[in-house]
Amino acid sequence: MRKAMALVLAGMMAAASLSGCGGSAGATEAAATTAAETKAESKAGDTKAEESKTEPKTSDISGKTVAFIPKLTGNAFFESANAGAQKYGKSWGITVDYQGSPNAAVADQVQVINNAVASGVEALCVSSVDATGLDSALKEAADAGVTVVTWDSDVSDTARTLMVSQGTPEILGKMLVDMGADSLTKRGKDTKADAIKYCWHYSQATVADQNSWQVAGEAYIKENFPNWVNAAPDNYYSEQDAEKAVTIGVSILEAHSDIDLIICNDSTALPGQCKAAQNKGLTKEDVTITGFASPMSIKDYCDAGVIEQWGLWDCQVQGAIGCYLAAYLSAGNQVKVGDKIDIPEIGTVEVMPNDCLVEGAPTGEVNNGVVLLPERTVFNKDNMNNYDF
After folding, report:
1. 282: how many CB neighbours lie within 10 A of its CB?
2. Which residues of the chain are under the pLDDT cut of 50?
3. Last residue of a domain, one of 261, 289, 312
4. Residues 213 and 298 placed together within one structural domain of the fold
5. What DSSP string runs through 193-207?
């Protein structure tokens, strides 16, 4: 009997043991499944986080209002830029409010800025008449919650977020000199051996972009054309006044009757200088004039044989990019150096550090830097009619 009981107990213990092993295996399998699921979920979470990091969701810009402020109204360059900004702005669903003064003066621009802020715009896109003169007004605008972007001509990098630039000083200074050298060669001058007499005519020394091109251009001349002689080291300035540009143009031609080359890195100075030469009966065979201005503003002088070539960039695209970025940042989007921004109908732009324009300039961690236009164009009689600005 005891033996039988022992066998029964042994069988019960064995069953319990087997049952326990089966339960342990089941628990281990369940734990492994849970761990695998947790790992998969974690990996999926990491993937989503990585996707979010590399492709951040952008806030919609539609409905934003950007005050688009030129140096002055009535100038072909700025009116063309406004046409482009209006066209693209409409397709993006933003309002581009073109506000400016016919006078290229700091006081006038400050008043325009203050009026725009008071009207309730979310952002400003400004081409400055002075490198620092607008800083205070723009910082006050930023303190009031208005996004500040510059284009064409900059302010202090601490007074704005992004700057949409037509190119670095080195690129544009070289372009100006090269256009002059090529035109001189076409009229029979030896630019490497001849003592070329030249000067600069533009708006004013306080306009950051134009002055930086002149400085870079001088460095390029010194290195590549050491025989060239600057007839007016202090430069000629016509303050973006159309009538004064003609008057200054005449004074250059009268003071330096043997001048070979006049470089006008300003869209008001160039047509004024061409008009002055035309009034005196001079052509491109007598004096070489070149610089930056819209094709439509110079084509008549080219047809008349006053100028060989000149250059610019697509100011319609530049103005539009500035307005887009102003709306983009005002919508709460953030950018940093190295980021690429896809602009509908235009393409991709990259945020670069401020020192690509000004040597040694620092750049803020977010929403601060420079965006460069991808290309520039040289105009002459062969291609000038292909453009409508």
Report:
1. 16
2. 1-56
3. 312
4. yes
5. TS--EEEEEES-TT-
Residues 230, 234, 238: CA angle, nearest 5 degrees = 110
Pairing of strands 162-165, 123-126: unpaired
Q: What is the CATH number of the domain that holds 366?
A: 3.40.50.2300
- Residue 176 sits in the same domain as residue 265: yes
Provide the domain count of the chain.
Answer: 2
Q: What is the largest CA-CA distance in the chain?
A: 140
The parent domain of residue 259 ranges over: 169-312
pLDDT tens profile 284-323: 999 999 999 999 999 999 999 999 999 999 999 999 999 9
Do 347 and 285 share a structural domain? no
Q: Are residues 193 and 239 in the same domain?
A: yes
- What's the CA gap between 358 and 339, in Å, rounded? 20
Residue 365 burial (10 A CB sphere; 0-12, 13-18, 19+)? exposed
Based on the domain organization, do 284 and 367 belong to the same domain?
no
Query: Does residue 153 sit in the same domain as residue 110?
Result: yes
| The pLDDT of residue 57 | 62
Q: Which residues on adjacent β-strands are paired with residue 170?
A: none
- In single-letter form, the type of residue at position 240 comes to Q
The predicted structure's pLDDT at residue 216 = 98
Question: Do the Cβ atoms of 69 and 100 come closer than 8 Å?
Answer: yes
Does 263 fall in a domain? yes
297/324 same-domain check: no
Burial status of residue 47 (CB atoms within 10 A of its CB: 0-12, 13-18, 19 or more)? exposed
Tokens 């009034």 label which residue? Answer: 279
Same domain, 225 and 295: yes
Could you identify the residue written with the tokens 């945020």?
351
Question: What separation in angstroms does the CA of 265 have from each of 7, 20, 119?
Answer: 110, 91, 34
The C-alpha atoms of residue 198 and residue 233 are separated, in whole angstroms, by: 10
pLDDT digits (tens, 9 = 90+) for 229-284: 999 999 999 999 999 999 999 999 999 999 999 999 999 999 999 999 999 999 99
